[in-house]
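fold description:
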Amino acid sequence: MTAPSSDLLLDVQDLKVSFATEEGVVQAVDEVSFQLHAGEVLAIVGESGSGKSVTAMTLMGLTRSPNARFAGTARLRRLDLVRARDDELRAVRGEEIAMVFQDPMTSLNPVQRIGRQIVEQIQAHRDVSGGEARDQVVGLLERVGIPRARERFGSYPHELSGGMRQRVMIAMALSCDPSVLIADEPTTALDVTIQAQILQVLKELRERTNAGIVLVTHDLGVVAEIADRIAVMYAGRIVEEGSTDEIFYNPQHPYTWGLLGSITRVDRPRPARLPSIPGLPPSLITPPQGCHFRPRCPHAHDACLPRPELLARLGGGESGHTDRCVMAPARKAQLRRAGERIGLVAGGATQ
């Protein structure tokens, strides 16, 4: 665990989220812990169904329902977002913590003009007139790259392209200069040009306001471009966490190897077939005993049957690089080198 710091914005400890269904209890998030500091970009990566979006939406108070159960803490400065009252959450949402949702078409009100939707958020938190709020919104739309922003103020969501709608969502999230921004797949289904523009907007936000950003994505190219630290999630758990360089160049968990190995490398010969992780993610109603990745891992053995802890196994631990794989680091390095020779693992030098 990182030592307490004056610039600590978000401190999530042992967060658990489960949902009661007709088939049984779904343990969507299982004792997830991480911290976010001012000016930092933390990327949470993993396959669909790994618990990334549920974690993010729980921090916003958007998974509360009669069939949901929560444990652990998620402190935004002094406020515990898990146990906060609805009125306390409304006071900080948009002001202190904001979110860019995955699908802007379903997140924007289809019968309300985009400018009015952002004005409404500003006036909910700031004592400004309608004219002042409108000018702020036009400036925000210009900042995120919306052409003819004053004209687009009166547009409906369906009149904009997917990339422009995503930029409107980012403008709304930035409208009150939040300390923490959660971006859930902000570049999904966008072409690379618009993707680059959106990443530039996020970088400018960090530089201008020193905000902390939680980037939820499965796109490792985006992660390499912007993230400072990476948390790899699988079946509701964080299985590895470290700096971007550590995760890309010295990954320690076989699941991380699989994620990296599924990306083509421009500095290596083109493979005949892109490697993939065998099998499917497990059921979160009846997950495997011990390591959840064990049924899909080619290196599984009896030591994987007890529940593995998230530990620093490389020695030193000054960087905070942790993982849940019980194999010795020397054995991992040997297996990774062998995998790289046959194109099953992407990575750089090992320790």
Q: What stands out?
A: DSSP finds twelve helices and eleven strands in the chain. The mean pLDDT is 87. The two ends are 23 Å apart (CA to CA).
